[in-house]
Amino acid sequence: MDILAVILLGFFAAGWFVLAGADLGTGMLTPWLGRDDGERRLVLASFAPFFLGNEVWLVATAGVLVGCFPALEGELMSAQFPVFVALLTGWVVRDAGLWSRGRGPGPRWRAGCDTAVTCGSWTVALSWGWLLAALLTGRPYTPATGPTAAPTALAVAALFAAHGLGFAALRLTGPPYERARGLVGRAGRPWQSFALTAVLMAGLPLVAGTALPLAGQAASPATLALLVPALLVVTPLLVAVQAWIWYTFRHRVTGPSYL
């Protein structure tokens, strides 16, 4: 059961990086992709149908970590507390900007919300980079410091942005699409860039997770016997719903959404 728990944790973590990395990366590039209010709203519309469903994968990852590896979760949370605070702050700020944008009095309000989306997205990406820097250097119980911490965090954030750029090239139309396509490159098809960054994004948590003593800190056999079968039942449903959402909203956006 402990091996299945490790597989589920890796699956949900990789899924979040691939799926939510797309909307976070696009949010990071909103000011560059959208040069005015209308264009920025189109950029947000490109990932509006997905971001809530994508966040479920992060909740599932946290749930598996807490339920199946409680001792490890406590140690990791305590050691990386500043990183998790920054990550959650960025997440809340990003989502607050998205939900509040269409509910304010005018252009300044919307510009402030767009700034919140961009800054929150960058904060989440850099926070993950900071956390992964600690894991990749084999020091999961110490916040990343030293000459490798900042370059690693920036490299991870750049990968988030590249992943969002590939997603934008698949979803946008008009001038925002042209800007995204210009950076992705006109040789080949847009999905090739997105597929490449998706593989790299999925590999990040899997490689970093090798630094964690997962097998040695699993919950009791009785707990795993209760949680793992339940997760195995729920996981196909989650995948099916996610696949339906992406299939339903597979076409390019041509107008604003509810955000």
Q: List how many beta strands DSSP finds.
A: 0
- What are the secondary-structure elements, in order, as H or E? HHHHHHHHHHH
Tally of helical runs: 11
Major β-sheet annotation: none
Mean of pLDDT: 90
Low-confidence stretches: none
- By secondary-structure content and strand pairing, the structural class works out as mainly alpha
Overall description:
The protein has eleven helices and no strands. It has one domain. The model has no long low-confidence stretch (mean pLDDT 90). It is mainly α. It is globular and about 55 Å long. The relative contact order is 0.18.
What's the layout of helices and strands?
Elements: H1 2-28, H2 30-33, H3 37-47, H4 51-68, H5 70-79, H6 81-100, H7 107-136, H8 149-171, H9 174-184, H10 190-208, H11 221-248
Core attributes:
259 residues, mainly alpha, 11 helices, globular
Concise account of the structure shown:
The protein has 259 residues and is mainly α. It has one domain. The chain has eleven helices and no strands.
